[in-house]
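User: Fold this, then the next.

Assistant: Folding the first:
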Amino acid sequence: MIQLFVDMMERVGFLIALAFAFSRSRWMRSYMSYQGDRTYQWRFLFFFSAYAILATYSGVTVSDYTYRPAPWIGEVSPTAAIANARTVGVVIAGLLGGVKSGFIVGIVAGVHRYSLGGFVAVACMIAPILQGILAGLCRNAFKKRFRKIASVQLAFLVGFMAEALQMILILALAKPWEDAFNLVSLIGLPQTLANSVGVALYFVLYNTMEREEARIGAEHAHQALQIADMTMPLWRLDFDKAVAEISKVLNEEMKSVGAFFSKDGMSWIAEGRKTQHWNDLIIRVPNRPQVGQFRLYYEREQDDNPSRRRMLSSLAELLSQQYAFVESDRQTQLLADAEIRSLQAQMNPHFLFNVLNTVKSFIRTKPEEARQMVMHLSKFLRKNMSHGNQRLITIRDEYELVMSYLSLIKSRLGDQMEFYAEIDERLLDHAIPPFTIQPLIENAIVHGIKNKPGIGVIRLSVKEELDEGKLHARITVQDNGVGLETAGTEGQSEHAGLALRNIEQRLSYHYGKEHPLEIESKPGEGTTIKFWVR
C-alpha cells in the first residue's frame, strides 16, 4: 500500500507540475480568474479534459490483488482496474471553472475511462461526472474562501470527498462485489490521499501565483496613480499643449520609446519614435464621440498578463475621468461667463433705462403695451437666472427666452426690425446648452441690423436635416445687417467675438465637433450662423 502511494504521488507530482505550467499562460489565467473572463472557456475545458485523460493513461494497472506500474496504459482486461490521478484534473476544473466546467470535463474523462474497459468501467465513468459537479458546487459555496490561503485545506477536503465518492460507486456498481471490495481495500486509501494531496498542492502553487500577481498588481496600481497625479494639472492647459505634455509624462514613466496622441485617425502629437509593439490608452467621455487615444510604443513586446491589462485599462480610465472633470469645470466656467455676459449685456443701465423709459412713455398712451413690456421683462430676467443653473435646456425654453428678449427690443425699435421664425415643433424638446440662440439673436441686432439703414430682418430656423447620413436638428440665425468683418469667431467688437467663441466652445464640448459654428458673412449683405443639435 505504501509503495502504491509513492507511485501515485510520483504521477500526481508530474501532473500538478504540468497543470501549473499551463496555468501560467495568459489565456488560462484569464479564464481561471474568479472575475469570470469566459473568452478562453473552451481552451480551459480542452486542457483539463486532456489532462484527465493523460492522468488515466499514466495510472497504475491493478489486477489479482496486486498492481503493476507501466509507462502507459492501453486496454484494461475485464478483471483489472486502474489506480490513477484522473480525479485531480476533474476536481481542479470544477473548483476553478464551476459546475458547468466540472460537468463537461467529467463527462469527457468518464467516457474515455469507460472505453478502456475493466470490471469497474461503469462506476469509473459515472464517478468523474459526479466529482466535477461536486467540485463546482463547492467552488460556488466557498467562492470567497478559494481566494485565500484557506483554499488549500478546502481543496484537500473536496479532493478527499470526490475520491471517496468514487470508491463508494465502485462498491455499489462493480461486479463481482468481492473483487470490488478487494480493489477498494488495496487502492482506496493510497489513491484517495494521493489525489487529495495533489489537488491541495495545486492550490498551494495557485495561491503563490495569486500573491505574485497581487504584488505586481499593487505595483501597477501605484504606477497608474503616480502617473495620474502628474497628469491631472496638465489637462488644464490648452488641449494641444495638454496632450503634448501628457505624452511626455507617459513616455518617461511607462518606459516606452515613443508616445503619440491621435484624434480622428490622425496623429496630433509625437514624442519619440514608432515600433511594431504598442499599447493604446483610449480617452472616452460618456455620451460623446471618442476624444482620442495615446499610443505607447515599445522596443519589444510587453508582457500581456491580466495585471498589466488592468493597469492600462485603469490608467486610460483615470485619464478619461481627468479630462471629463477638467472639461466639466471649464464648461461650468463658460456657462457662468455666458450668463454674466448676457446679464451684463441686457441688464446694463442703458438697457434697463431704455426699457423702463419706453414703459413710462407707454403708460398713458399705450397702457396695455406697457403692461406687456413689464411682463416680458419679468419673464426674461427670470429665465435668464434659471438657465444659468442648468447644463442643458430644451430648444423650447431657449426660444421662449428669445421671444421675451425680442418683445422688449421690438417695443423700442418698432418697424425698424422684422423677425421671422420657422420652427419644426417636433424638435422643440431637443436639448441644447443655454444661452446659445439668444446671444446669436442679440449679436445680429447689436452688431448687424442696428447700424444698417432701413429695415433689419432676422430669421430663425429650426429644421431637421441630414448630417453625415443621419437626421439632426439644424439651427440657423440669419440677418441682413452690415456683416462681420471675417466669417470667424472674431466680429466687429470684442463682445461679439467673445460671445461667439463661448458658444462654440460649449457646443464643441456637448456635441464633439471641433468647430460647431458655421459662419457665413459678407460685408453689407448680412451674416448667417448655423449649428447642429445631435
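Now the next one, as you asked:
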Amino acid sequence: MKKALLSAACLGTTTVFAQVKDTLQTKNVDEVVMTASRKKENIKEVPSSITVVGEKQIQSQLTVNSDITSILQYTVPSLGTNSGQTSNTGQTLRGRQVLVLIDGIPQSTPLRNGARDLRTIDPSAIERIEVIKGASSIYGNGADGGIINYITKRNKTDKKISGISQIGFTGQPYGGTLGVRASQLLTGKIKKFDYTLSLAYERTGYTKDGDGVLISPTYSIAKMDNYNGLLKIGYDINENQRIEASYIGYSSRSDLNVGLKTGKYGITPTIGEGIGKGLETTPQGTPKNHNIRVSYDNKNLFAGTSLNINLYYQDFKTVYGYSDTFFNGGQSNVISKKAGARFNLDTQLWNSANSQGEIIYGADILNDETVQKLEDGRFWTPNMNMTNIAPFVLAKIDLFKKLTIKGGLRYENIKVNVDDFNTLSTLKSDGTFTKSIPVAGGKLSYNALVGNIGVRYNIEPYINLFGSFSQAYSINELGRILRTSTSETIKNLETKPIIVNNYELGATGQLSSWLNYELTSYVSTSKLGASFVQSPDRALMIQRSPEIVYGVEGFLHFTPTKWIQFGGSYSWMEGITSIKDDGDYSAKINNSRISAPKVLAYVQARPIPTLSIGLDMLHSFQQNRFEPNAKTGLFAYGEGYVPEYTVFNFKSSYEVSNNWRLSLGIENLFNKVYQPAISWWTARDSDFTNALGLRGTFMIEYKF
C-alpha cells in the first residue's frame, strides 16, 4: 500500500480510514493528507476510526444534492440521517452532538445549539471533509460525539491561473421547482504567492414530495438564495516558513411565502398550501457567517521543533421562521461571535531505525459570545460570554514500524459570564403563557483535566488492530437551560458540564488488492449527560442524567476490476440512561439522539474511459424503542415509532474533452413518497412532513 499521510487529533487518539469510493476517478487515492488536527502522520500510526470524504466524493454527491447535510448522510456511517430542512436537528454523530469546523474555525454554537452549523458553507468550496468519530477535546467545547471539519480548497499547481467553472440546473417533474446554481474556482501561483478564489451561488425552486405536493414551509430550503465566497492567499517566506490568510463568507435567505396546513401525525403530512401570513420581518436562513483566519508555519523553529500558529474570527447569525409560541409572536435568532488562537509546537525527541518519539504541546484560547433573541430585540437567552484557555501536551512513540502508542492531556479552564435577563413568556399546552421572571446572572467557572491514550498494532496488511480512550468536555446547551429558568438566580440551576469518556476498539486491513474493510465498536459514557425530553405540558426541557451510548459500525469496499467498484457500510447504536442516578439504566435515550441503524451501499462503474455512472442506496431501519402514553395514545417528543425506508440516487458524468464535462444526477430515483426519520420521532403533527420527491440536477463544467 502506498504511504498515506494523515493528521492525527491534537490529543492523538484518533485513527483514520481514507474512503476509497470514486477510485475510478483518481489515482493514488490512498495518499490522503489530513490537516484536521495538529500533526500529519501515516495512516498506520493512528488508533481509532475517522471517515475522510474526498474531493471526488463531494463532487459526485454534489451532482445529486448540494445540501451538505445530504452529502454527509450518504458518506458517514454513524451520522444520523438528515431532515431535508435548514435545521440539522437529530443529525448526531454516534448519538451525541458534533462540533463543526471550517479549516479548524468553530462553526457550532454549543452555548445555544441552533442546529444550523452543518449548513454553513457551499460544498463547491470544500476539498475534503474530515470526520473524527467519538468524543474529542481537540478543539474544545461541543465535541461530545466527534468533529466534522470542512477543509477548503487550495492551490495545487504552479500555473499562474487555473480554474473550474460550473453551472447547473435542478428541478422536479412539477411546476415551480426549477433551480439554478453556478460556481467559479480560480487558483494560481505567482513566485512565492499562491491564491484560491471560490464563488458560488444557488437559487432553489419550490420543493415538492413524490405526489407533487408542496413540502411544509417550516425550516424549508425552498425559494432560497445561497451565497458562498472563499479567498485564500499564501506566501512562502522560505522553504521552512509560510504565512496564509483566508476569508470565507456564507449567506442563505429564503423568500418563500407559502401557508401552512398542519396534518395529523402518522396519517396526513403537514404541507405548504396557499399564501403565508406575511408575519416574518426577516427572511429565514443564515444571513451571515463570516470566517477570517491567519496562520503561520515554521518547520524548523529550533532544533527538531516546528511551530504552527492559527488566529481566527467568526461572526455568525441564523434566523428562524415566525412563531406564535412567543407572547405577541416573533422570530428567534442565534447570534454568535468567536475569536481564538491556537499555538502548536512539535519537538522530535529521537529518531532511530526502529523507533521514533515526539512531543506535541501548546495552548488554545477561545472567546465565544452567544445569545438567542427575537428579531424585535427581546432576549430568549441572556448574553453568554465564554473564555476557554486550554494548554495541552501529547507524547507519541513508534516502535518497529508496527506499534504506535499515544497519550495526551489537556487542561480545560472555562469561564462564562452570564448577563441578567428576564425569561421570555411562551405558550404552554393549555393555551396560556408562562410568566416572565427576572433572573440574576453571574459568573460560572469550569475546570477539568481530560486525557486520552491509544494503541495501534499493524500486524500484517490484512489485520491492523487499534484501541483508544478519549474524553470530551463541553457545556453544551447552557442557553436552553437558562432560558427555561424557574429560579431567580443562575446559581440554583444545574449547569454542570458534560464530560464524555469514549472507548473504541477496532480492526482494519487490506484482505487483497481489491478488498479492504474496517470494523469498529465503541462505548461512550457520561456521568451527567443532556437530552431533550417532554415535560407534562408537552414543552421541551433538558434532562440531566448519567448516560451510556454504545454501538458498532463497519464497511467493506470491493474493486475487482479497474472499471467497477462497489461496497457499503452498516452502523448501529443504542443509548441508555439512569434518570434517577440510582444505577438503573432501564430507560433509553430518545430517538432525537439515537438514530436508527443505517446501511449505505454504492456501485460505481466506468464502462468507457469518458463515462462514469453510479448508484447510491440509503436504507434506514425501523425504530420501535418506546410505547405511547397509555391514556392519551400519544408518543412523547423523541419517542415516536420510526418506520424503515430506502432511497436510491443515480449519478453520472461524461467527459466531452479534457476541458468539458457533463453531469447528471437524480435524487430519490424512484420518486418514493416517504417521511424522513425526524418526522416520526418528533411525534408532533406540525413536524410530520414528507421528504423530497424525485429531483434531477444537470451540470456543465469547464476546466482550464
